[in-house]
Amino acid sequence: MKTLVLISFFLLSYLHTSYSQKYNAIYSFGDSVSDTGNLCVNGRPSSLTLAQPPYGETYFGKVTCRCSDGRLVVDFLAQYFGLPLLPPSKASGSDFKKGANMAIIGATAQTSAFFYSIGVGSNIWNNGPLDTQIQWFQNIASSVCGSNCKAYLKNSLFVLGELGGNDYNANLFGGRTPEQTSSYVPQIVQAISNGAEKLISMGAVDIVIPSVLPIGCFPVYLSLYQSSNAGDYDGLGCLKSFNNLANYHNSKLKSAVNSLQSKYPGTRIIYADFYSQVISMVQSPSSYGFVSGLQACCGAGGGKYNYDNTKRCGMAGASACSDPSKYLSWDGIHLTEAAYRQITNGWLKGPYASPPILHN
């Protein structure tokens, strides 16, 4: 009997390791879709709604400065590979040998100088553009891998984004149309590509580069840019022009990923398709266990989107739904833990990553 148990154990171990790979660390870059607490390392700012309850209620039971009710994709990735949840890179005294998160709420792919040069600098609060995040990573690299970083980072997983969303918000919330904003897509994608090359030069081999989300399906945009023209909406009830902008970014990003893969054949550059998977969730929420694809769980006002910009999640007057696992959207701007769990599976095993993170 004991022999059979041992055989079963080793067989299960073999099946798991034959399908996946081991990473010694995960290093993440990005914005509020990925931040695990960089904005709150010195305490929770009282002015930041994202740093108030009920954020964090589902998994952590407390606010962690994650923009969700619980875990994010980077959390699920870390747990899948048996690594600790990624500590924020700005947290002094942390051990970053098994991973670190450079992502920070409000981050952009481009620098603040870029936004001032195009006249929208006052519309962003740029807490750490990609260039700065890479500098943060360089600052901790010596404590992680000393003088032999290339050998260590070769066996680490890098997640570069999502980035770009706040770059477009700077323009959109500054009064520009999605069509006008699209003229900046090539420069924003180039910034992401340049960031990837910097990491490759340091020794990164496995890099996940996520697309931007279908913002035209998010309650914040659906509420702020409501239209009386039915032709502005697609069959799912999403705003066409906003999703066209996201699609244009993603097509350029996919081309950039393909170019990087050709330029660096010794790497695995993985295009992670946030967009298509979220569209699938909006199209058929019940297939994912959701009751709604377009309504926020946490917000105020009820109605079609349960979103009021003056009573956002974490503000007075807003409240969370009784079961966030039944919703795609957490606060009208970010997704629920349940959605991020599904997305992680789509990246690990496919079909929403090209190639999937896991390989034989």
UniProtKB/TrEMBL annotation:
GO terms for molecular function: hydrolase activity, acting on ester bonds. Keywords: Glycoprotein, Hydrolase, Signal. Pfam families: Lipase_GDSL. Residues 1-20 form the signal peptide. Gene3D superfamilies: SGNH hydrolase. Belongs to the 'GDSL' lipolytic enzyme family. This is GDSL esterase/lipase. It comes from Carex littledalei. The lineage of its organism: Eukaryota, Viridiplantae, Streptophyta, Embryophyta, Tracheophyta.
